[in-house]
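note to self: dont lose this again. the chain is below, predicted strucutre after it. 267 aa total, dont forget to put it in the shared folder this time
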Amino acid sequence: MLQLLSPGLVAYILGLTALLGLVMGSFLHCWAYRFAREQSAIKGRSRCPVCGKALSPLELIPVFSYFYQKGRCRGCGAGLSLRYPVAELLCGAYFMSVVWRFDVSPEALQYLIAGSLLFCIAWVDWDVRWIPDRLLAGVILNFVLFSFILGGDPAKNLLTGLLGGLSVSLPLFILVLIMDRLLGRASMGGGDIKLFFAIGLYFSWQANLLLILTACILGILLSPILRKKSSDDRDPEAFPFGPAIITAYWFVLLWSGPLLNWYRSFL
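---
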């Protein structure tokens, strides 16, 4: 559909999508913050994390409010984390990239819902090193529902997804068991393996190979930041792997097709 529209109209649609992503990013980041602290996501107004002042509508405009207030609370003047506009911009970019890649389609809606849930998982894991089963269940349920919505044989769609999920999670599970025995300690959290399974449902086994490779590379690159953030003194070498896995999901979602086609051209 986008290919048939004028450049101006395409820019308008992508701009609206990005704006929706900014708003969703603000909500989802708040949801993840409260989820990590076992608070209600819908009850109670947003407040300054330092002084507890309830935020006005002007203070809740994605990205704009942060820079308008110069990164400080209007009540107590405390500095606010840069993660607020970063989270909103990342979500806006994700929404726009999905529509750019998959057009205005049910498939795009599937990935927008999955990405929203994964966005929350990434921030919860970043904050408290926990990948909630309830959010993973949402990612899996989203795949199951769209296996019926997207057309084709639902049973075949489900089986293909299951094979994709197991192609990345099962070998990883076996490898982790071996490494745990050799090292005498946990080498990877069970939540990370379940996250690989949930994401793997959406990709072919070839794309899942790229997923795990990309996640490992990102994990190495981001480990100094993620390890510094970690508050687990029992294992200072551990770090939340979820954000790296979910960033790899975004990369594979957009680029696995072109990269795999490029690779096959050499065969």
